[in-house]
Amino acid sequence: MGRMSPLLRRASRPRLVTLVRKPGCHLCDDAEAVVSRVCADLGVSWEHKDITEDEELNRRYWEQIPVVLIDGEQHTFWRVDENRLRKALR
């Protein structure tokens, strides 16, 4: 039996979008609205993580929040482009 290509393996598993945010951040609120809408439309799971509660996320992303990760890889930061996010998740 042949081995599955990395692209097919990646496409066959469920996607996960992670929004890295902090309390009181208006850009984070805007990003959450876009992520929530796009993920609901496409049936993709998503979560949010508070940068103030995770030392590693704080160290990595403090100057970039909000940050959107897709399957653990950084997709974007500051402002979320809805069309670009949709395209990345299809």
TrEMBL record:
Family matches, as Gene3D superfamilies: Glutaredoxin
Domain of life: Bacteria
Pfam families hit by this protein: Glrx-like
Protein name: Glutaredoxin family protein
Organism: Streptomyces griseoaurantiacus
Source organism phylogeny: Bacteria, Bacillati, Actinomycetota, Actinomycetes, Kitasatosporales
